[in-house]
Specification:
Layout lengths: L16 H8 L2 H12 L7 E6 L5 H9 L5 E7 L2 H12 L8 E5 L14 E5 L8 H11 L8 E9 L1 H13 L17 H10 L3 E13 L2 H12 L8 H5 L1 H13 L4 E3 L5 E13 L2
Parallel strand pairs: 1-2, 1-4, 2-3, 4-5
Antiparallel strand pairs: 5-8, 6-8, 7-8
Protein backbone atom coordinates (compact mmCIF):
# COMPACT_ATOMS: atom_id res chain seq x y z
CA UNK A 1 0.00 0.00 0.00
CA UNK A 2 1.41 3.37 -0.93
CA UNK A 3 1.01 6.27 1.44
CA UNK A 4 -0.53 9.61 0.72
CA UNK A 5 2.15 12.25 0.24
CA UNK A 6 2.06 14.66 3.14
CA UNK A 7 0.33 12.32 5.62
CA UNK A 8 1.85 12.87 9.06
CA UNK A 9 1.76 10.31 11.83
CA UNK A 10 1.45 11.77 15.29
CA UNK A 11 4.37 9.84 16.84
CA UNK A 12 6.93 10.86 14.23
CA UNK A 13 9.42 13.50 15.28
CA UNK A 14 9.86 16.32 12.73
CA UNK A 15 12.61 16.28 10.12
CA UNK A 16 14.56 19.29 11.32
CA UNK A 17 18.25 20.10 11.15
CA UNK A 18 18.44 19.59 14.91
CA UNK A 19 16.86 16.13 14.78
CA UNK A 20 19.05 15.07 11.88
CA UNK A 21 22.06 16.13 13.92
CA UNK A 22 20.79 14.15 16.91
CA UNK A 23 20.22 11.06 14.79
CA UNK A 24 23.63 11.07 13.08
CA UNK A 25 25.60 12.15 16.13
CA UNK A 26 29.12 12.93 15.03
CA UNK A 27 29.69 10.01 12.62
CA UNK A 28 29.57 12.23 9.54
CA UNK A 29 31.90 14.67 11.28
CA UNK A 30 34.26 11.79 12.12
CA UNK A 31 34.40 10.89 8.43
CA UNK A 32 34.88 14.53 7.42
CA UNK A 33 37.78 14.95 9.81
CA UNK A 34 39.46 11.79 8.54
CA UNK A 35 38.95 12.86 4.91
CA UNK A 36 40.53 16.24 5.61
CA UNK A 37 43.48 14.58 7.31
CA UNK A 38 44.12 12.67 4.07
CA UNK A 39 43.52 15.61 1.72
CA UNK A 40 46.22 17.82 0.19
CA UNK A 41 46.87 20.81 2.39
CA UNK A 42 44.74 23.83 1.66
CA UNK A 43 46.60 27.01 0.84
CA UNK A 44 45.99 30.54 -0.37
CA UNK A 45 43.10 30.76 -2.80
CA UNK A 46 41.72 27.31 -1.97
CA UNK A 47 38.08 27.23 -3.02
CA UNK A 48 36.03 24.46 -1.45
CA UNK A 49 32.61 23.04 -2.30
CA UNK A 50 30.65 21.49 0.58
CA UNK A 51 28.11 19.80 -1.68
CA UNK A 52 24.73 19.00 -0.07
CA UNK A 53 26.17 20.46 3.10
CA UNK A 54 23.43 19.30 5.47
CA UNK A 55 24.29 20.53 8.94
CA UNK A 56 27.68 21.71 7.73
CA UNK A 57 29.91 18.92 9.05
CA UNK A 58 32.48 19.27 6.25
CA UNK A 59 32.50 23.02 6.80
CA UNK A 60 32.93 22.42 10.53
CA UNK A 61 35.88 20.09 9.97
CA UNK A 62 37.53 22.70 7.74
CA UNK A 63 36.97 25.44 10.32
CA UNK A 64 38.62 23.22 12.96
CA UNK A 65 41.78 22.66 10.94
CA UNK A 66 42.34 25.45 8.41
CA UNK A 67 43.24 29.14 8.35
CA UNK A 68 40.32 31.25 7.15
CA UNK A 69 42.49 33.62 5.16
CA UNK A 70 43.44 30.70 2.92
CA UNK A 71 40.00 29.23 2.23
CA UNK A 72 36.64 30.15 0.74
CA UNK A 73 33.87 27.61 1.28
CA UNK A 74 30.75 27.39 -0.86
CA UNK A 75 28.19 25.31 1.04
CA UNK A 76 25.13 24.31 -0.97
CA UNK A 77 22.09 22.20 -0.25
CA UNK A 78 18.64 21.69 -1.73
CA UNK A 79 17.18 22.49 1.69
CA UNK A 80 17.14 26.08 2.90
CA UNK A 81 17.17 24.97 6.56
CA UNK A 82 20.43 23.10 5.94
CA UNK A 83 22.01 26.18 4.40
CA UNK A 84 20.82 28.24 7.34
CA UNK A 85 22.30 25.75 9.80
CA UNK A 86 25.67 25.87 8.03
CA UNK A 87 25.64 29.67 7.91
CA UNK A 88 24.84 29.75 11.64
CA UNK A 89 27.76 27.40 12.30
CA UNK A 90 30.14 29.70 10.40
CA UNK A 91 28.81 32.77 12.19
CA UNK A 92 29.96 31.29 15.50
CA UNK A 93 33.53 31.82 14.29
CA UNK A 94 34.04 35.49 13.47
CA UNK A 95 37.00 34.93 11.19
CA UNK A 96 35.01 32.47 9.09
CA UNK A 97 31.70 34.31 8.78
CA UNK A 98 32.63 35.99 5.50
CA UNK A 99 34.54 32.96 4.18
CA UNK A 100 31.53 30.60 4.14
CA UNK A 101 28.96 31.32 1.47
CA UNK A 102 25.73 29.33 1.38
CA UNK A 103 23.21 28.86 -1.40
CA UNK A 104 20.14 26.71 -1.99
CA UNK A 105 21.11 24.58 -4.97
CA UNK A 106 20.50 20.99 -6.16
CA UNK A 107 23.62 18.87 -6.56
CA UNK A 108 22.38 17.82 -10.00
CA UNK A 109 22.36 21.41 -11.29
CA UNK A 110 25.17 23.51 -9.86
CA UNK A 111 25.39 27.13 -10.96
CA UNK A 112 29.16 27.42 -10.52
CA UNK A 113 31.47 27.90 -13.49
CA UNK A 114 33.63 25.09 -14.85
CA UNK A 115 36.85 24.36 -12.92
CA UNK A 116 35.84 26.45 -9.89
CA UNK A 117 36.91 24.30 -6.95
CA UNK A 118 40.25 23.10 -5.64
CA UNK A 119 38.46 20.77 -3.20
CA UNK A 120 35.00 19.25 -3.64
CA UNK A 121 33.28 17.20 -0.94
CA UNK A 122 30.15 15.14 -1.46
CA UNK A 123 29.71 13.68 1.99
CA UNK A 124 26.90 11.06 2.02
CA UNK A 125 24.97 12.80 -0.73
CA UNK A 126 25.29 10.92 -4.01
CA UNK A 127 23.22 7.88 -3.02
CA UNK A 128 20.44 10.16 -1.77
CA UNK A 129 20.20 12.17 -4.99
CA UNK A 130 17.48 11.94 -7.62
CA UNK A 131 20.14 11.52 -10.33
CA UNK A 132 23.48 10.23 -9.04
CA UNK A 133 25.13 10.25 -12.46
CA UNK A 134 24.29 13.93 -12.85
CA UNK A 135 25.68 14.71 -9.40
CA UNK A 136 28.95 13.06 -10.40
CA UNK A 137 29.10 14.89 -13.74
CA UNK A 138 28.43 18.26 -12.09
CA UNK A 139 31.14 17.56 -9.55
CA UNK A 140 33.50 16.74 -12.44
CA UNK A 141 32.58 19.90 -14.32
CA UNK A 142 33.14 22.23 -11.37
CA UNK A 143 36.34 20.66 -9.98
CA UNK A 144 39.69 21.94 -11.22
CA UNK A 145 41.98 19.50 -13.05
CA UNK A 146 44.45 17.61 -10.89
CA UNK A 147 47.29 19.58 -12.46
CA UNK A 148 45.78 22.71 -10.91
CA UNK A 149 45.35 21.09 -7.50
CA UNK A 150 41.83 19.76 -7.86
CA UNK A 151 40.73 16.83 -5.69
CA UNK A 152 37.32 15.57 -4.68
CA UNK A 153 35.86 13.16 -2.15
CA UNK A 154 32.61 11.22 -2.29
CA UNK A 155 31.37 9.05 0.57
CA UNK A 156 28.73 6.36 0.90
CA UNK A 157 28.01 3.85 3.63
CA UNK A 158 29.61 0.41 3.32
CA UNK A 159 28.38 -0.87 6.69
CA UNK A 160 25.38 0.71 8.35
CA UNK A 161 23.69 -1.70 10.78
CA UNK A 162 20.89 0.74 11.51
CA UNK A 163 19.73 0.31 7.90
CA UNK A 164 19.28 -3.40 8.57
CA UNK A 165 17.25 -2.53 11.67
CA UNK A 166 15.05 -0.13 9.68
CA UNK A 167 14.45 -2.73 6.99
CA UNK A 168 13.57 -5.34 9.64
CA UNK A 169 10.94 -2.96 11.07
CA UNK A 170 9.71 -2.20 7.55
CA UNK A 171 9.27 -5.91 6.78
CA UNK A 172 7.56 -6.63 10.11
CA UNK A 173 4.94 -3.88 9.89
CA UNK A 174 4.10 -3.52 6.19
CA UNK A 175 2.80 -5.69 3.37
CA UNK A 176 5.32 -7.45 1.11
CA UNK A 177 4.75 -5.05 -1.78
CA UNK A 178 5.60 -1.95 0.27
CA UNK A 179 8.86 -0.37 -0.89
CA UNK A 180 11.51 1.50 1.05
CA UNK A 181 14.22 3.75 -0.38
CA UNK A 182 16.95 2.01 1.60
CA UNK A 183 16.39 -1.27 -0.24
CA UNK A 184 16.67 0.62 -3.53
CA UNK A 185 20.10 2.07 -2.65
CA UNK A 186 21.96 -1.09 -1.60
CA UNK A 187 24.36 -0.93 -4.59
CA UNK A 188 26.08 2.05 -2.99
CA UNK A 189 27.52 -0.18 -0.26
CA UNK A 190 29.82 -1.74 -2.85
CA UNK A 191 32.97 0.36 -3.33
CA UNK A 192 33.32 -0.88 -6.92
CA UNK A 193 29.87 0.45 -7.73
CA UNK A 194 30.79 3.87 -6.32
CA UNK A 195 34.04 3.83 -8.27
CA UNK A 196 32.19 2.99 -11.48
CA UNK A 197 29.79 5.90 -11.11
CA UNK A 198 32.64 8.35 -10.59
CA UNK A 199 34.71 6.94 -13.45
CA UNK A 200 31.79 7.21 -15.86
CA UNK A 201 31.67 10.92 -15.01
CA UNK A 202 35.28 11.22 -16.20
CA UNK A 203 37.20 10.95 -12.94
CA UNK A 204 40.03 8.69 -11.94
CA UNK A 205 38.96 7.22 -8.60
CA UNK A 206 40.72 5.50 -5.72
CA UNK A 207 38.63 3.71 -3.09
CA UNK A 208 39.27 3.38 0.63
CA UNK A 209 37.25 2.86 3.82
CA UNK A 210 36.93 4.77 7.09
CA UNK A 211 35.69 3.38 10.42
CA UNK A 212 33.31 5.34 12.63
CA UNK A 213 31.18 4.68 15.69
CA UNK A 214 27.71 6.03 16.42
CA UNK A 215 26.95 6.32 20.14
CA UNK A 216 23.62 6.96 21.86
CA UNK A 217 22.39 7.10 25.44
CA UNK A 218 19.14 5.23 24.74
CA UNK A 219 18.98 2.57 22.05
CA UNK A 220 15.21 2.65 21.89
CA UNK A 221 15.12 6.43 21.96
CA UNK A 222 17.55 6.57 19.09
CA UNK A 223 15.53 3.99 17.12
CA UNK A 224 12.35 6.03 17.64
CA UNK A 225 14.11 9.08 16.22
CA UNK A 226 15.63 7.16 13.30
CA UNK A 227 12.30 5.51 12.42
CA UNK A 228 10.67 8.96 12.52
CA UNK A 229 13.20 10.40 10.08
CA UNK A 230 14.00 7.41 7.88
CA UNK A 231 11.20 4.90 8.33
CA UNK A 232 8.60 6.21 5.88
CA UNK A 233 8.00 3.95 2.87
CA UNK A 234 8.07 5.08 -0.75
CA UNK A 235 4.94 7.19 -1.14
CA UNK A 236 4.94 8.44 2.46
CA UNK A 237 3.49 7.45 5.82
CA UNK A 238 0.14 5.66 6.03
CA UNK A 239 -2.51 5.37 8.75
CA UNK A 240 -1.29 1.80 9.27
CA UNK A 241 2.17 3.15 10.06
CA UNK A 242 0.62 5.25 12.79
CA UNK A 243 -1.06 2.17 14.27
CA UNK A 244 2.16 0.14 14.15
CA UNK A 245 4.67 2.82 15.08
CA UNK A 246 5.52 1.33 18.49
CA UNK A 247 5.82 -2.17 17.02
CA UNK A 248 8.19 -0.88 14.36
CA UNK A 249 10.39 0.84 16.96
CA UNK A 250 10.40 -2.34 19.08
CA UNK A 251 11.52 -4.46 16.11
CA UNK A 252 14.17 -1.94 15.15
CA UNK A 253 15.51 -1.76 18.71
CA UNK A 254 15.71 -5.55 19.04
CA UNK A 255 17.44 -5.91 15.68
CA UNK A 256 20.00 -3.17 16.32
CA UNK A 257 20.80 -4.35 19.85
CA UNK A 258 21.29 -7.88 18.49
CA UNK A 259 23.74 -6.83 15.80
CA UNK A 260 27.30 -8.12 15.97
CA UNK A 261 28.39 -4.50 15.43
CA UNK A 262 26.53 -3.19 18.49
CA UNK A 263 28.21 -2.59 21.85
CA UNK A 264 25.95 -2.08 24.87
CA UNK A 265 26.94 0.40 27.55
CA UNK A 266 24.92 -1.52 30.12
CA UNK A 267 22.68 1.49 30.75
CA UNK A 268 20.13 1.15 27.95
CA UNK A 269 22.33 2.68 25.29
CA UNK A 270 25.45 1.81 23.37
CA UNK A 271 27.33 2.28 20.14
CA UNK A 272 27.27 0.75 16.69
CA UNK A 273 30.16 0.43 14.27
CA UNK A 274 29.75 2.03 10.85
CA UNK A 275 32.12 1.95 7.85
CA UNK A 276 32.21 4.51 5.07
CA UNK A 277 33.37 4.09 1.49
CA UNK A 278 35.53 6.99 0.34
CA UNK A 279 36.18 7.72 -3.33
CA UNK A 280 39.10 10.10 -3.84
CA UNK A 281 38.60 11.52 -7.32
CA UNK A 282 40.63 13.63 -9.72
CA UNK A 283 40.12 14.78 -13.27
CA UNK A 284 42.77 14.63 -15.97
Amino acid sequence: MSGAQGYHIKQAQPRTAQNLRRMMGDVSLQVSRQMLARAPKMGPESTVHDNACGNGVVTQAIIETQTPANVTIHATDIGSTMCEATAALASEHAAWASRVKTAVMPSEKLTFADDTFTHSYGNFVIFMAQDAEKVASEMFRTLRPAARGGVGYVTTWHLMPDEDAIMAAHAATRPPDAKHLLSMRSDWKDPEYVKGVMERAGFSAEMSKLDTKLSFESTRGWCELAWSLLGAPVGGWTPQDEEKFEQAVDVMTENLAGSEYFESNGKGGGAVRMIANVATVRKG
